[in-house]
Amino acid sequence: MTYSINIKLIKQKRLEHKYTLQEMSEMLGLANRSLYLKRENGYQKFKANELPLLSKKLGIPLNDFFFQTLRKSQKEKNKWRISILAKLSNTLANPNNK
Fold first, then answer.
1. In whole angstroms, what is the distance from residue 69 CA to residue 1 CA?
2. Alpha-carbon torsion 68, 73, 77, 82, what sign?
3. Angle value at C-alpha 52, between 49 and 56, nearest 5 degrees
4. How far apart (Å, rounded) are the C-alpha atoms in residues 25 and 88?
5. What domains sit in the chain, N to C, each tagged with a CATH number?
6. Mind listing the pLDDT tens digit for each residue in 2-59?
7. How many angstroms separate the Cα of 81 from the Cα of each of 9, 68, 86?
8. From CA 18, how far away is CA 39, in angstroms rounded?
9. What gap in Å lies between CA 1 and CA 3, rounded to an integer?
10. d(CA 22, CA 39)
C-alpha cells in the first residue's frame, strides 16, 4: 500500500476558512497563486516541508492529510480475484451451465 495526500480535504478546509489562493501561496512562500493551485488540484505534489504549514493554517492534524491507496499492481490482482470469484459463484449457482 502507498499513501496519498488528501487534496480534497485541503481544498475543503481552505474554502471553509475562506482563504484565497494568494493567501495560501504566500503562506507557503510560493511565487504566485497558480503554483498553489497546481498543488491543490493534484498537478504537482505538496512538498514535505509545506505540510506542517498547511496543517497549522488549516487546523488539520498531519495524519489526516494521508490516506492509503492501492498500487496499480494490487488493483489488477484484486480485479483478477473478483473475476475468479464471480465465475466461481456463477458456476456454483448454475451447475448445469458450463
1. 6
2. positive
3. 145
4. 54
5. 2-70 (1.10.260.40)
6. 778 999 999 999 999 999 999 999 999 999 999 999 999 999 999 999 999 999 999 9
7. 32, 20, 9
8. 18
9. 7
10. 13
Grid cell at residue 7: 487534496
> DSSP 3-state helix, strand, coil percentages of the chain (rounded to 5)?
60, 10, 30
Nearest CA among 12, 2, 4, 14 for reference residue 74: 2
Cell numbers 451451465 correspond to 97
Instruction: Report d(CA 84, CA 24) in Å as an integer.
Output: 48
Instruction: Tell me how far CA of residue 13 lies from CA of 1, 29, 34, 62, 89, in angstroms.
Output: 26, 19, 18, 13, 44
68-98 pLDDT, tens digit per residue, is 765 666 666 666 667 666 666 666 566 676 5
Show the CA angle centred on residue 39, arms to residues 33 and 52, nearest 5°. Answer: 95
d(CA 70, CA 45) in angstroms, rounded, equals 18
